[in-house]
Amino acid sequence: MARPDLNLLVTLDVLLAEGSVARAARRLRLSPSAMSRALARLRDTTGDPLLVRAGRGLVPTPRALELREQVSRLVRDGEAVLRPAEKLDLKRLVRLFTLRTSDGFVENFGPDLIARVAEDAPGVRLRFLQKVDKDSTPLRDGTVDLETGVVGTAAGPEVRTQALFRDRFIGVVRIGHPLCRGDITATRYAASKHILVSRRGLDGGPIDEALRPLGLERDIVTIVGGFSTALALARATDLIASVPERHTGKLRAGMHSFPLPVLAPEITVSMMWHPRLDADPAYRWLRGCVRDVCSKS
After folding, report:
1. pLDDT higher than threshold 60 for residue 1
2. Cβ of 4: how many Cβ atoms within 10 Å?
3. Is residue 39 within 8 Å of residue 76, measured between CB atoms?
4. Do 7-82 and 169-265 share a fold?
5. Fold classification of 169-265 (topology level)
6. Which pTM was predicted?
7. What is the pLDDT of residues 255-271, one digit of tens each?
8. CA–CA dist 10, 65 (Å, integer)
């Protein structure tokens, strides 16, 4: 069965509103003959005369009267769908956004982001999920609206990314730790007892690779899955936590931080989203909030 020409809905709406082929033709900027052919197609499609002559004019059939409101509503809805999005009214926006964030993001940037969102859009709520892997499926299937972290090879090729900030690793110990005093050499750093952060449970990382050419190896006492856990342990023990500086700024309050005595690679923390959310004004506003908060923190 052939699909009907939906353009005929607009023609039918104007014909039923005007009750005249000539007036409908002028309104749609068509010739009277073109409008007559369109009416013939409508009659053939619906199986009803729709408009019949009465004296010098045309009157709608019962079927046309039955269709008039429905057709008018369909045309208005179609025009609304194809109309450019209206300007976003943040004060009236009611939405729940889901963010999947890397370890430490909520603790460090969450308070400022929540405050910014509450000021701009009181009806918006944020839901934070812990990022346990780099799989981009949650972005693709819509269960997550925005993600932060280091872009990995597991991210889908269609995923949009924007860098938020560059970060470097530093060492962190409790106040009173022996490393609070004196120069921290690579040898002294490696000989101390360490916490290794590895989400995948690995027994080494980039810092260990940087130490290896120097003939040094860290004394790793324990392995944890996140930076916030590592800092909590370092705060209560003599262990060293090596963590990203900006990503853990607020988590390190009251602790002693120092530059690493080896050249460890920097990381780029980015936000990621699915391209279907590119043009949506509400999601563009959310990404702007995240970008602004990260640039100021």
Report:
1. no
2. 12
3. no
4. no
5. D-Maltodextrin-Binding Protein; domain 2 (3.40.190)
6. 0.69
7. 999 999 999 889 999 99
8. 16
